[in-house]
Amino acid sequence: MRRPVTDGVWTRRAEWGPAVLSVLAGLALWEIAARLWTIQFLPPFSTVVQTAVRMTLAGQIVGNLGFSLGNLAVGYGLALVVGIGVGLGAGRYRKIEYALDPILAGMLASPKLLFVPVLYVMFGVSRGAQIAVIFLSAVFIIAANTMSGVRTVDAATVQMALVFGASRRQLFWKVLLPASLPLTMAGVRLGMGRAVAGMITGEMFITLSGLGAQLRTYGNRFDAAGVFAILLVVVAVALVCSRGVRHVERRLTRWAEPTT
Amino acid sequence: MIEIVEASKTYAGGSGRPAILALDGVNLTVRASEFVCLLGTSGCGKTTLLKIVAGLESPDSGDVRIDGRTVAGPGPDRAMVFQHFALLPWADVLSNVAFGLELRGMPRPEREQIARHLLRTIGLEGFEHHHPRQLSGGMQQRVGLARALAVDPEILLMDEPFGSVDEQTRRLLQDDLLRLLERARKSVLFVTHSMDEAVRLGDRVALMTPRPGRILETVDVDLPRPRPPDVDRNPRLIELKEYLWARLRAMHAATGD
After folding, report:
1. Would the CB atoms of A164 and B84 count as touching at under 8 Å?
2. Is B82 an interface residue toward A (CB < 8 Å)?
3. pLDDT digits (tens), chain A, 260 positions
4. Do residue B86 and residue A154 have CB atoms under 8 angstroms apart?
């Protein structure tokens, strides 16, 4: 009775086993396939790791990674503020929702690479363009999820707050906002993945900076081991970031997890 | 005191269906410290009437007055207990009970002291930091009741509050409610579809007919208070229940349900 079992370590421990196993199996498959058939442009995993280590030791990773992550932090931070703000507004006022719905749906479906020429013209080759790509990649999914979160708040809960004298402000801060958290946080987590992808897109095609530029250089040289080494770093970054967000999500929305 | 005078309410019928006359000239008075049960078949407008008194909805015509003043919205003189509890799932029991006081700007130490006191009287001591989903339905409704009593309203509005718990729990909750009201008298408007519950709890029972929603008659429950747990065996209670059932059965026959 004190605390449901699923809240604690058990879920995480139960998740870790299969997760680690599946990743190891995938990597083993990669290694074996690459060694058996020597596929062109697919170096074995071990070679990629060696390359990644060599590049890191030669100082080719950390500096670029730092630069990329700085842009990621700014772009994703802006996307959080705007996405959650717009989502809450749209969830609360039907008219804003109706106005935004087609735009959100359209933007969610469109590849952000389409905006590259526009951003290029607007910002030139600058950090601004880089931050804009990251922002655009993450903001729509965050807004859409936040909006659904507010919309699905139980009508009886709202009536209860009104009967007990909630002002509009109180209704918003003490009911709508916390009630929408599970879906909002799902959007925040999904937005993180999209932001990392946007970061690489921007660096490869607009700013030619950071890891993305490096990726492009190796690609042009047909240096497959280099390309995969960078990808390995990017994937690791994405995993760490989304794990971090997931951790915050769990803490904030423990009350909404299923009991069984 | 609640005075409902000639209150009518029509809901627009959706997509080609006719408009529904939910309330048709309803007259009802709940005197200070009186316990009135609204008894009727489902869909007879009981809950609509309660929401109008709560200030969540307004009548199309007629007047609802609390102590002589027309109701314009929710107010601190009224609190409500909901059929499906309407607790905040992210907040613990203590915060849920203190929620109304929090909305009124009472500082945390004071409101939590009041909430703790109520939890003791209602038998939920030790559950202060549990979350609603960790509690049984009966315990959740005790929290809902404590939340309503915490703001110390003159009027308690109850919308089938014990309708979604099992019969044994319902009996216990009914006894708890009566015990609490002995200590702090309130005017109560209590919506139910159970004849048994209406006569066990009420000073008067208002019988409502559906479509259009009207008060057919009000019946005095002339049983002494405090009502003992074995009040069910009281011949007068049985007689009243039989009478109410006869009237309700006639209503069902008339509406073809």
Report:
1. no
2. yes
3. 444 444 444 456 677 788 889 989 999 998 888 888 877 778 888 888 898 888 888 887 888 888 888 999 999 999 999 999 999 888 777 788 888 888 888 888 888 777 778 887 888 778 888 899 999 999 999 999 999 898 888 889 999 999 999 998 899 899 988 999 999 999 999 999 899 888 888 888 877 778 888 888 888 888 888 888 888 888 888 888 888 888 888 888 888 776 44
4. yes
Contact A164 B56 (CB under 8 A): no
B chain contacts of residue A175, beta-carbon cutoff 8 Å: 88
Three-class DSSP labels, chain A = CCCCHHHCHHHHHHHHHHHHHHHHHHHHHHHHHHHHHCCCCCCCHHHHHHHHHHHHHCCCCHHHHHHHHHHHHHHHHHHHHHHHHHHHHHHHCHHHHHHHHHHHHHHHHCCHHHHHHHHHHHHCCCHHHHHHHHHHHHHHHHHHHHHHHHHCCCHHHHHHHHHCCCCHHHHHHHHHHHHHHHHHHHHHHHHHHHHHHHHHHHHHHHHCCHHHHHHHHHHHCCCHHHHHHHHHHHHHHHHHHHHHHHHHHHHHCHHHCCCC
Q: What residues of B are in contact with residue A170 (Cβ under 8 Å)?
A: 103
Q: Is the peptide bond before A182 cis (omega within 30 degrees of 0)?
A: no
Q: What is the pTM of this model?
A: 0.80
Q: Do B88 and A175 touch (CB under 8 A)?
A: yes
Q: Where are the domains of chain A?
A: 45-254
**Shortest CA distance from B149: residue in chain A:** A164
Task: Identify the closest residue of chain A to B81 by CA–CA distance.
Answer: A160
Partner-chain contact A156 B75, CB within 8 Å: no
Q: Are A122 and A148 in contact (CB under 8 A)?
A: no
Which residue of chain B is at minimal alpha-carbon distance from A4? B134
- Cβ A164–B131 below 8 Å, yes or no? no
Give the integer Cα–Cα distance in Å for B136 and A1. Answer: 11
Nearest CA in chain B to A180: B90
Residue A103, min C-alpha distance to chain B (Å):
29
Looking at the predicted complex, does its ipTM rise above 0.90?
Answer: yes
- Are A164 and B147 inside 8 Å of each other by CB? yes
Other C-beta atoms lying within 10 Å of the C-beta of residue A92: 18
Comparing CA positions, the residue from B9, B106, B99, B15 lying closest to residue B62 is B9
CATH of A45-254, one of 3.30.450.70, 1.10.3720.10, 1.10.10.10, 1.25.40.280: 1.10.3720.10
